[in-house]
Amino acid sequence: MYAEERQQEILRRTREAGRVDVVTLAEDFGVTMETIRRDLTVLERAGTLRRVHGGAIPVERLGFEPALAARDAVLTAEKERIAKAALAELPDEGSVIIDAGSTTGRLVEVLPSDRELTVIVNSPPLATVLATRPNLNVIMLGGRVRGRTLATVDDWAMRPLDRLRVDVAFMGTNGCSVEAGLTTPDPAEAAMKESMMKAARRTVVLVDHTKVGNDYLARFAALSEVSVLITDTGLDAGLAADLAAEGPEVVRV
Questions:
Q1: What tens digit of pLDDT does each residue of 225-242 get?
Q2: Phi, psi (5° rounding) for residue 141?
């Protein structure tokens, strides 16, 4: 088993059990306790769990939301595959919303230069990248900027969405489950995401497999409101089928 595979399994066990301990993990994986401690350090730096004496607990138990920079540094290959798959959902011309986030940020990086699009974003960093593209008309939704996600939120950001009707919204999410739908830790950001989806004819959700099965404080959409959900092959096929039964087309790449 590669280190990344072991770390993802450790993360899965931590979220499932609510806590893991170093000794048990070392025995189960047939590695040294020092190796497990290094794995836990990697996962803590990624913002997915918190080290405690003798083991670790998932950040969800702390009500803790990893910063964008931490989330951007993990599962990079999976996020790039998801972003490239999302290109199939772009209109040939027209308008799109791109939500703030680490996976949607990968989509911004691979947007084609051969089609004219109006792109609406709620992220100053993404707006800065997009504004240099001559084929794009970029609209920035102003408002309060959340330091943790660098997303604009609150009334000033949401108000213009009432007057917009775009072709596709490309959305990120912290949590995705059959029971709760799409969730995020911050109510202000949930309200913003909900408004962005309502302004679009279709919604495409970009979500890596580690977020599936997790629920957070604020719900912003049911799965039935999603047209396409794009994830990676780390998601179990059975769970993917459960998500698809709620309405969206589920694409694993």
A1: 999 999 999 898 999 999
A2: -85, 110
Contacts for 243 with CB less than 8 Å, ≥ 6 apart: 176, 178, 212, 223, 229, 250
- DSSP letter assigned to residue 234: T
Phi, psi of 219 (to 5 degrees): -90, 135
The rounded distance, in Å, linking the Cα atoms of 167 and 162 is 14
What is the rounded CA–CA span in Å between residue 253 and residue 208? 10
Three-class HEC string of 42-103: HHHHCCCEEEECCEEEEHHHHCCCCCHHHHHCCCHHHHHHHHHHHHHHCCCCEEEEECCCHH
Give yes or no for a contact between 6 and 39, defined as CB atoms under 8 angstroms apart. yes
The pLDDT of residue 65: 52
